[in-house]
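ok so I'm stuck.
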Amino acid sequence: MTIAIFGTKIPDSYLVYLQQLTDHLSQADGHFWIYKPFADFLDGKIHFPKPPVPFAKHEEIAGKADLFLSIGGDGTILEAVTIVRGSGIPIAGINMGHLGFLSGISKEEILPAIAEMTGKNFHLEQRTLLSLETPTGLFGDLNFALNELAVHKANVQTLLTIKTYINGQFLNSYWADGLIVATPTGSTAYSLSCNGPILTPDSENFVITPIASHNLTVRPIVVRDTSRIRITVESNRNEYLVSLDARVLKVTGILELNVFKADFTVRLVRFSGTNFFETIREKLKWGLDLRN
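replied:
not stuck anymore, here's the structure
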């Protein structure tokens, strides 16, 4: 099995777990790749018994890697998606961050998890992405998101007017700090913090969630992921922010955003005995009495 390792920066206290991982992979059959900026960060911090093959672009691993290991938190997986894209390489997240909705493998479970993966004792979850089209080609060829598209005011004095249409039908003019269009995966991220509902990964929906609406009766709404969502944004300060996952751009003037389901999915590794409902119970502490 050929494994590609991706990461950004991790605390020095976690390096011992990464050393265990590289030692194990070096002893296994096959070879492994490593994201070059991550390899540069690790230079002199861990020892590679077998030199890994460096990569920097998605073209270098497409059709070559059997598994993509993301080392970090959920934000690292969002970055990993920009490398994997539509290649179909399964992504497994080793959580060295905080909450870890997507990166389900704890750092203490690295070696058992690798044994499960090399034995192909896992299943894959297909996750929907959204795509963005704009007249100006915002974000270039990285015009997709696993979690969400968001528009947000650029400073505290700004008020946005966000007109939203679903399949050509007018939905609402949101007077708000911003608006989120989230996938089921993104429903447990920014949208959730703005009181959006949780969607199961296979629900085939998007959720449209206002950010600090100035009309208190406005609530999130769930639509089919086959819908085409058109958004126009106006700002009284003539500037605002547009983001796709962790990628953020500042925009001036009136802009039309067209949001729709991407033509590819990403595949996340899940092990036997784990499921989405167990994850949200654990991560959100449901059923626990925390009053004392």
